[in-house]
Each structure stands twice: as C-alpha cells, then as structure tokens.
Give the backbone structure.
Amino acid sequence: MQRSWRIGIIGCGFIASEVHLPVLKQLGNVAIVAACDKDDRRLSHYGSLAGVAESGLYPDHRQMLLAANLDCAIVATPPSVHKEVVADCLNSGLGVLCEKPMAMSGDDALAMLAVASQCQRPLGVICNFLQFPEFVTLKQVMGELGPKAPRLITIRGRGLGMDAVMIQNYLGGRQSGFVSCDHRGGVLRDYGVHAIYVANYLLDAVPSAVTCVVQSAGHPGESVDTSVLCLLEYPTSHAAIDLSWEPRMTTDDRRFQRGSLDIDYDEALVEVSYLDRGDGLHAPALCVTAYDQAGKTVRQIPPASPRERLFASFGATFDRWFESGMHLTGPDDTARVGADAMVVVSACDRSSAARGTVRVEWQSNPDTSGADAPSSPREERAWQP
C-alpha cells in the first residue's frame, strides 16, 4: 500500500500557490495538512486553494513544526531565510524539499548539507530544469558524439524555453521576490543557478575558475543584478553564460528572448532550438540538432507549451522526491547539485567584485555516511534523471 506523506508548506507566494500546488494536487501520495506564511492574506488565500483547515495555518514556521504532525516540509520562502528554515525543519525530524536557490551563498548551502547529514534526515532541492526533455536528449546526443569534451557550452537568454510573456507574468510587474529586495537576490540567483547546474550536468564536472560581471539596470530602489555574463572554466571545457531580465534590441533578440544553448566541439555543433510563432502562447517547435562530419541530425522533442513543460518538470521533480528522496537519511543528489551551483554563484560574486578571474573554492562536506566528500563532480554526486 502506497504511503501518504503529510506535508507542510512554508512560504505561500506565487511559486507555492501557482506552480507547486496544482502539481501536488495531482500526486496520489501526499496530503497538504499545514501551511505557513507571515502575510495573513497570502496564507488565507493559499489555505483556501489547498483546502487546508484554518487550524492548519500558521504565521510562524516554528509554531507549525511544534503543532502539526508532518513528514515533510516544502520550503518556498525568500532564499535569504532558506538556511534557517531548512535547519529548523531538519532538526524537527522532517524531510525537506527546498526551492532554488538553495541559499544565498555556497557556505550556507554546504552548512545545510551538513545539518541534513547530522540529523540523518532527507534534504532535496528543486532543480527542475534537469527534468526538461531537451537537456536529457542533449546529454544523450553528447554521449553519442564520443568521450571528447566540447570546447564551449553557451547559454544565453531570459529563459530557456520560457517565453518572454511567461517571464513577465512571473516577475509580476517587477514585484517578484527576486527583484524587490536585495536580500532575495537577482537574475544570478534566480535563473543563473539553473544555467550553472545544467552546465555542470552536461559536462559532468564543476568549474575550477570563474570570470563574471553582474550588473543592475538601476531601477529606483533596486540594487539587485538584472544581467550577468560569466565564463566558467572546467577541467576540459568552458561554459559561457549570458543572462538578463532586460530586453535587448538586437538582430537576435527573438532568440535571446526564448533562450538558446549551443555546444561547440572541434568538429561538431549541437544546439537546442526553441522556435515559436512569436506570440508566446503556442507550443514551440523544440528540437536538439547536431551538426558533424556525417551531416545534420535532428531530434524532435514532443511539443508542449512553456506552461506545460514547466509543470511537467515540477511533477517529475516531486514524483522523484516522494518516491525515493524521502526514504534517504541525508541530502539527496539534488541537494548536492544545488549546493554546487551556490558555490559557483559565490565565486561569481567574488569575481564581479574583484573585476577578474577567481578560483572556485571547493570545500569538503560530509556525505550521508559521515565521511568527508569533496563538493565537486564525482560519480557518486552525478545526477541521473
């Protein structure tokens, strides 16, 4: 008989109510029995949507942890408090699935891994782009091209496969938590972490050095980054990441709006193509194309709208977590993927401040057995869909 997990939601904003909740309602092995948010209106709205009794709504997560009988917490608060909230949940004996970015810094992310290992409780991070079919297909195509590493991976845009209309709706007229306050981060921590962990996944490695520039568009009252350009140096390859929330009036603006990912080899090129009708509403003609000496090979991805693709990626993420992640006694592979990404983000911060190249400081962190393991790409850390 399938177990039903009793879960509590901490943070009832857009991502929890408009994305997580519809997906969780489709799962047959979870029951949302409690929710927490400091904003009374947001909390009441979420409770109505999720069908949580008023007695299960809490203004403080510590009250919820004491009063509710939970198996797991999903943390969707601003990332500035992820470390504290996740630690409280783990110390209360719960499994925790945390939204990205895992934390505000690499040190905080590694500390969260350590708490999960010490408490012997499962910890996962929502790295849902790893469930996008184009990246799984891309990894397969790279394997077919042989063991030689590519020279360069280039990731550009406002959202890989997430059209400009959808992104603007997500930002909510610049009211997104990632834009409105310094302590919640900017494009580097919102979208950049996706690009970083996708590059790590495709190369099966983490970078040893970073050169990065982050910029703010200078909107009144804002100092968070709205554009980021960085070069990641891997042992046998490089990744260039060019991301922005700002429109670019260039000849390839359409491609930048939709997003692009290209992989350059000495004698081959592989690219992800997002082709649409330009209205941001219809399903893109999504394909992975490889060009080499044998000619052109196209892998078509089943058509789906950006919304459908996004929801499917969260569905696969939640399925994987409740089927296997919740049975672990420590951080799962997504938590390590999320921590690796945050170590790189911290290096990007240091590089931008220093206006030069910096080494990525890979430290040791405890694995689930208590032994020290490097926070770097190793077979036991490689993510598999």
